[in-house]
Amino acid sequence: MTFSSCGTPRQSISTRPDYGESEAARRARRQEYLRNQYGATFERLAQQFAVEASRIVSPSSGRDAKGTAEIYSSEIEEYEGGAVSCQATLVWQARDLWKGVPYDWCELVGNIYYFPRTRQAKFVYSSRNEQLVRVSSKSALKKLDEGIVLK
Fold first, then answer.
1. Domain ranges within the chain, ordered by starting residue
2. Rounded to two decimals, what is the model's pTM?
3. Strands (DSSP E) found in 38-78
């Protein structure tokens, strides 16, 4: 005898029973899953975005480009379109000989948005430091304002 012949509606059966798990515990388990699934991807993307940002801002003087994805101090968020995001900090050293600006650290803080289906990523910054403004041209700052896209 099947459920459909009994007249009872079909129900989905969870393989993982809910033993009164709190919302906080469910969120923590989800964050652990997202970190395991996307953590290495975000670390790699942060490095690539740091190199790309240094090429945009200071193509001839950028060095020591590195990016860190803050996947453990903040949450990885999921969006309806299948995207995931996390906070990232991009840093590198740059100078501008023509303006007389010596080497110092440029820093961009923002979010990496990753689209797993298309494997595209975008970095949108929320803050930048003064050194970055001093060594950048107006066109470079405009490119950064539009966001950096990796395909």
1. 23-150
2. 0.78
3. 63-69, 77-78
